[in-house]
Amino acid sequence: MTPQPSGAPTVQVTRETERSFPRASEDEVTCPTSAPPSPTRTRGNCAEAEEGGCRGAPRKLRARRGGRSRPKSELALSKQRRSRRKKANDRERNRMHNLNSALDALRGVLPTFPDDAKLTKIETLRFAHNYIWALTQTLRIADHSLYALESPAPHCGELGSPGGSPGDWGSLYSPVSQAGSLSPAASLEERPGLLGATSSACLSPGTLAFSDFL
DNA sequence: TAGGCCATCTGGTCCT
DNA sequence: AGGACCAGATGGCCTA
């Protein structure tokens, strides 16, 4: 029941993700048995200290051991734990790679200038959100104008954002992206086509072409 | 050098 | 039991 990103059923190592896989080789992930949770813990060095783990140790202490199952040596248990952790790490890495692949795919369909710096993850999500909203409004305007052919004087300012946020295009990058200079709002302000086309609440569909988003 | 972004590891929780 | 998902922690890289 795991929704797969369409078209990306398998792990794709993308430009982004293949950039750096320092990949603290699994063998490096050692399990020093008495590492206290330290704020300066070194990477891959903490691991679950035999029982407690790095944080909230008490819980692990609850872990049942022994019982009526066949006794396993401490060594065997440790090996098993490490093996499980390693597999979990692999899966988690894989999962994140999938997520990144999906994000890359999303970047691929968003209008950007070739020389634009790659959108960050959060920028990508925000931009996609706003972009979808913009396209939706475009369709609405088109519909509206078709309708207007039969009934006069469509009124402006009817646009509304999906979330009930302000309807003007100035909000194209809000409410979710109002932050710093790296936000899509800032980086896209240099796209006069987009903002130009979108800053007016009263557009005729003919003036809003897809190229306006580029 | 501080801050942002990212990849990875890790333990917890939920689900099958 | 094991996998998926999640959030916290940590260190590396980059840029202003």
UniProtKB/TrEMBL annotation:
The keyword Transcription belongs to this UniProt entry's keyword annotation: yes
Tell me which Gene Ontology terms the entry assigns under biological process: axon development; enteroendocrine cell differentiation; positive regulation of transcription by RNA polymerase II; regulation of dendrite morphogenesis; sensory organ development; transdifferentiation
As one GO molecular function, the record gives:
DNA-binding transcription activator activity, RNA polymerase II-specific
Biased composition annotated in UniProt, kind: Basic and acidic residues: 15-26
Query: What Pfam family is a match, any one?
Result: HLH
Where does this protein have compositionally biased stretches of type Basic residues?
57-70, 79-88
Compositional bias (Polar residues) spans? 1-14
Q: Which GO terms describe its cellular component?
A: nucleus
Show the InterPro entries listed in the entry.
Answer: bHLH_dom, bHLH_transcription_factors, HLH_DNA-bd_sf, Ngn3_bHLH
The UniProt record lists the BHLH domain at: 83-135
Q: Which UniProt keywords apply?
A: Activator, Developmental protein, Differentiation, DNA-binding, Neurogenesis, Nucleus, Transcription, Transcription regulation
- Which residues lie within the region annotated Disordered? 1-98
Q: Which PANTHER family match?
A: BASIC HELIX-LOOP-HELIX PROTEIN NEUROGENIN-RELATED, NEUROGENIN-3
Q: What is this protein called?
A: Neurogenin 3
